[in-house]
TrEMBL record:
Keyword Kinase: no
Organism listed in the record: Aquiflexum gelatinilyticum
Signal found in the keyword field: yes
PROSITE patterns the record matches: PROKAR_LIPOPROTEIN (PS51257)
Signal peptide region: 1-20
Name this protein carries in UniProt: DUF4843 domain-containing protein
Cited InterPro entries: CalX-like_sf
Keywords: Signal
């Protein structure tokens, strides 16, 4: 008899709990973010929003920084702008790097790459920094917490003569 009552009680609990309507709020917005800003530890002492630093050699060539679309995928291509932030950048465009300033997230996709070409300045020593920030577009804003990433471009020391 106890088994029957237990099974009957369990059946009633399952029956009544499965009929409860769940109205979870959904977010319908969209933002873009640098993947490296999401998964890497921010650089200590950076301003808000904090950002990570990625160290690359001046011989690396091309650096692909993945940009994520957080939200529903779009049915058409989305051009996303990004900029160089002067405060946090010591690298010189055309000397240390080249960058287009935009990327395209293809239709029905959630990612694209911001491409930065690192120029080989030779063995002159030291390092320079390049701070990038996503601007988004008219429909897609940048994520406030993950919109910046910095590249530190290292240059080997000149050989002793």
């Amino acid at each position: 008899m106890k088994k029957i009552l237990s099974l009957l009680s369990l059946a009633l609990v399952l029956a009544f709990s499965s009929c409860i309507e769940q109205n979870y709020p959904t977010w319908s917005g969209a933002v873009v973010e640098f993947q490296d800003a999401v998964v890497r530890t921010p650089l200590a002492g950076t301003s808000n929003p904090a950002y990570p630093r990625i160290t690359v050699a001046n011989t690396v060539g091309t650096v692909n920084l993945q940009v994520n679309l957080v939200g529903a995928q779009r049915t058409s291509d989305e051009t996303i702008a990004f900029k160089i932030v002067p405060d946090g950048t010591t690298a010189v465009a055309g000397t240390d790097f080249s960058v287009s300033g935009s990327l395209v997230i293809p239709a029905n996709s959630s990612t694209a790459n911001a491409v930065v070409t690192i120029l080989n300045t030779g063995a002159i020593g030291g390092s320079v920094d390049l701070l990038l920030e996503l601007d988004g577009n008219a429909q897609i804003a940048p994520s406030e917490n993950y919109k910046r990433v910095q590249l530190r471009i290292t240059r080997p020391a000149a050989p002793d003569s």
